[in-house]
What we know:
By secondary structure, the protein is mainly alpha-helical. Helix content is about 55%, strand content about 10%. The protein is built from two helices and four strands; from the N terminus they run ααββββ. It has helices at about 1-25, 35-85, and strands spanning about 85, 95, 100-105, 110-115. The strands form two sheets. Strands 1-2 form a two-stranded antiparallel sheet. A hairpin with a 6-residue loop joins strand 3 (about 100-105) and strand 4 (about 110-115).
Amino acid sequence: MRMVASRKRTRALFNIDRIVHHDLYAYGLQFSVTWASDYWGVSRVIYVCMIVPAALSISMLAYDLVRNMKSKKRNDRQMLEKSMPVTCSNCKKRFNKTLVMLDFNQKQPKLVNVCPYCSTVLDSTEEKDSVIVHVAEHQKVIT
Ligand SMILES: [Zn+2]
């Protein structure tokens, strides 16, 4: 819509220019620097007032396009990481949820994350939402 209005304004300005430089001379207009310099000054101001907003609009449009593309790319990457957050270090398969098992090999039993494909115990750093339960000595129930 703004582009159409801008095009109409530009065409009107060119029409005025054509009338002054072509048609009025046919009706006997005498060239004089006094009126011509005023006319050139005003027409240049009008051109600048048309070009500056157009340049600003184009640069804002380009800036928005680049920003939208960057944020879309970032969102796609985040969605992919969210949908498949865990990678097994042994079989390299990706999955959403690990198997959670109790590990009795240590003094205190703790929950460990296990790969559902190859049953490898995963490091806690490999899964973002890992839950490791520590049962401290003072928390044990004395009977
Ligand atoms: Zn695995």
